[in-house]
Amino acid sequence: GQNIDQPTEMTATEGAIVQINCTYQTSGFNGLFWYQQHAGEAPTFLSYNVLDGLEEKGRFSSFLSRSKGYSYLLLKELQMKDSASYLCAVSLDRGSTLGRLYFGRGTQLTVWP
Amino acid sequence: NAGVTQTPKFQVLKTGQSMTLQCAQDMNHEYMSWYRQDPGMGLRLIHYSVGAGITDQGEVPNGYNVSRSTTEDFPLRLLSAAPSQTSVYFCASSYGLGGAGNEQFFGPGTRLTVL
């Protein structure tokens, strides 16, 4: 089976930087997605990595190391509205599972004033 | 563009009842999927479709049926509801299968309770 791990909960203060880690062991790899999900709402796309390295998008950055099966989402200058669940998802590349997304259980981030 | 729409938003069923969750998208996406989200379990794929007339099973397909007669619509049918199907159901669509530019767009969800 596919295994995607991320911490259950994290807390941080407004204005700080937080790093949310995701490790994966999957039968194939065609990229890693990060989604944000506010309570009671749908997940929304944040970032995509398929090559090793850092992708930066404003206050959010995402890093991937394929050899280590590891990714992280870095959130800078935290704001109260960043309080949400952050979902790591791996896309597979083989046969009948091509393109299917497998999600981690999500990391609930709480930002305190 | 309405994006991905789902109806109903809330539903309460009795054990053994059947119902259909509706999902539609207006982005001309080929790929559509249904997920369920349970506390502490993350999103799990129920069924998916790579185009009109083509569907396949995901991780947790038992108790659910799907069909895809048009590009826009992808309904999910519960044949005989069970309490274990109490969950939040999300429909999602994307242009293609994984990879850059193929992020999934999610509908607002249907919160289903089976008594």
Could you give a quick summary of the protein structure above?
The complex is a heterodimer of chains A (113) and B (115). Helix content of chain A is 0%, strand content 55%.
Beta percentage of chain B is: over 45%
Rg estimate of chain A, integer Å? 14 Å
Q: What would you call the shape of chain A?
A: globular
CA distance, first residue to last residue of chain A: 40 Å
Can you write the helix and strand succession of chain B as a string? EEEEEEEEEEE
Q: In percent, how much strand structure appears in the residues of chain A?
A: over 45%
Oligomer: heterodimer
Q: Give me the number of helical elements of chain A.
A: 0
Q: Based on DSSP secondary structure assignment, what is the total number of beta strands of chain B?
A: 11
C-alpha termini separation of chain B: 36 Å
Order of helices and strands of chain A: EEEEEEEEEEE
**Largest contact between protein chains?**
A-B, 26 and 28 residues
Helix percent of chain B reads under 10%
User: What is the residue-mean pLDDT of chain A, rounded to a whole number?
Assistant: 94
Structure in words:
The complex is a heterodimer of chains A (113) and B (115). Chain A has 113 residues and is mainly beta. Chain A has strands spanning 3-5, 9-13, 18-25, 32-37, 44-49, 53-57, 60-65, 70-75, 84-91, 101-103, 107-112. In chain A, a hairpin with a 4-residue loop joins strand 7 (60-65) and strand 8. The radius of gyration of chain A is 14 Å and the shape is globular. The model of chain A has no long low-confidence stretch (mean pLDDT 94). Chain B has 115 residues and is mainly β. Chain B is 0% helix and 50% strand. In chain B, the strands form 2 sheets. In chain B, strands 2, 4, 5, 6, 9, 10 and 11 form a 7-stranded mixed β-sheet that branches. In chain B, strands 1-3-8-7 form a 4-stranded antiparallel β-sheet, with no helix packed on it. In chain B, a hairpin with a 3-residue loop joins strand 4 and strand 5 (42-51). The radius of gyration of chain B is 13 Å and the shape is globular. Chains A and B meet through strand 5, strand 9 and strand 10 of A and strand 4, strand 5 and strand 10 of B.
